[in-house]
Amino acid sequence: MKAKSLRKYDQAIFDAVLNTVSDGITVISKDLKIIFQNDAMCQNFGKRIGEYCYEAYRGRGEVCEDCIVLEVLKDGKPRRALKDVQMPDGNILWAEYFSGPFKDENGNIIGAVEVVRDVTEQIRITEECVTLRREVQRQFQFENIITQSKKIKEIFRLIERIASTSSTVLISGESGTGKELIAKAILYHSDRKEMPFVTVNCGAIPENLLESELFGHVKGSFTGAIKDHKGLIETAHGGTLFLDEVGEIPLSLQVKLLRFLQEGESRRVGDTQVKKFDVRIISATNRNLEEAVKDGVFREDLLFRLSVIPIYMPSLRERREDIPLLATHLLQRLCDTHDRNVTGISSETLKKLMDYEWRGNVRELENTIEYALHLTDDGQTIKDEQLPKKFSGVTEMSEIPQNFISIDEYSKRTIIALQTNYTEEQIAAILGISRKNLWEKRKRWDIPRVTGTK
């Protein structure tokens, strides 16, 4: 249909557009009387043509003090405002108002056009997000982290001094010691707390995908790259990137990460353009990276760049004074989660918990309390008999026939038997593991390499 033939439909098209949009649209004369309403406005307030706008839309007997229509009528400049409005049914909604001049063919202002948009849901969501953010921030305030340990309190004092800087932080310690908790405590005491906080577990992403995840890629850069992909460094621009298990980053990728730390520059896979980003790097590891450097699986220069501020998280064995506090706190939290009423932990059981080695640290303690909770009746305290069997010296392993050996024991014996005549690559291939896994097993079982082996 040609534009010329459309002219006879101009009014119909105009009416269709006005009455299809979900925003309310009204036209108000210079004496503040309503001269037009679209369907959305009629649905919300009823047909109010000829009435004063402040009576029809605000239920008032006089002009509103914050009336933006009056300002538009005076100078012809568009205005915008956010107001709470009481609807005819008594409900309150938040509305965004856009007002502009309504002029005749000579350019004289004869009224104002007002568009009203309901933003109640957006306001509610925003308020909920603010409340949630405040609650999250409260959880990571030092006074809300459960500890009596002098070592942990020393870490708190360090965080207070370095949180507002952009220096890199390397948090080391065993699994389950709360390294991510400390990373978030740094974040929420920093100037970047309102900016993105992006977390990536470097050990959970396959090596061939990790580069794309961190740095992004462009369409067509490899098979399956069907569109441009923003990397996590770019996503964290202005904020913080938390690299968990940073020791698992492959050597081939460590060079690229080092360049970003040195220059603040990043380039997507398959791209020629280099971009600069402002990102603070906090990383964590449960490995001894200095030993990894000696074994040639981690770059020394990258370690220096990552660990401007080193923080060591002590294991639960090194802060046994926290065990009763943590156990009680975890029990209360788990009771809330499972809607239970277990009243506490007996003193004898607390003593047993304090004497245990806790190789899995706080995470293992939480699992133990949750196990005991399910075996304890409401109104009762947790006693020794509700703890897992490992606390009484009886484990499922004791039921295995004595002529069997574990997989770990088999691996240990194989390494010792082969290391004199085989290279590290050959031993790893025989065991069906990577050389890095072999290195980790040697460290865990304290099996030194024989001098002269490769």
Largest sheet: 5 strands, antiparallel
Q: Based on the structure given, which CATH architecture of the largest domain is correct?
A: 3-Layer(aba) Sandwich
Proportion of β residues? 15-25%
Could you tell me the radius of gyration in angstroms? 33 Å
- Average pLDDT works out at 85
Question: How many extended strands?
Answer: 16
Describe the protein.
The chain has 4 domains: 3-118, 2-Layer Sandwich (Beta-Lactamase), CATH 3.30.450.20; 140-312, 3-Layer(aba) Sandwich (Rossmann fold); 317-399, Orthogonal Bundle (Helicase, Ruva Protein, domain 3); 407-445. The model is unreliable at 394-402 (pLDDT under 50). It contains 19 helices and 16 strands. Strands 2-1-5-4-3 form a 5-stranded antiparallel beta sheet, sandwiched between helices. It has a 5-stranded parallel beta sheet with strand order 7-10-13-6-14. It is 41% helix and 17% strand. Helix 11 crosses helix 13 and helix 14 (323-338) packs across helix 16. The protein has 454 residues and is an alpha/beta fold. The protein has helices spanning 3-6, 10-20, 39-45, 53-58, 68-75, 120-139, 150-162, 179-188, 207-215, 232-235, 251-263, 289-294, 300-306, 323-338, 347-355, 361-374, 407-418, 424-431, 435-445, and strands at residues 24-29, 34-37, 79-86, 92-103, 109-118, 169-172, 197-201, 216-217, 229-230, 240-244, 265-266, 275-276, 280-285, 309-312, 344-345, 381-382. The protein is elongated.
What would the keywords be for this entry?
about 450 residues; alpha/beta; Beta-Lactamase; Rossmann fold; five-stranded antiparallel β-sheet; five-stranded parallel β-sheet; 16 strands
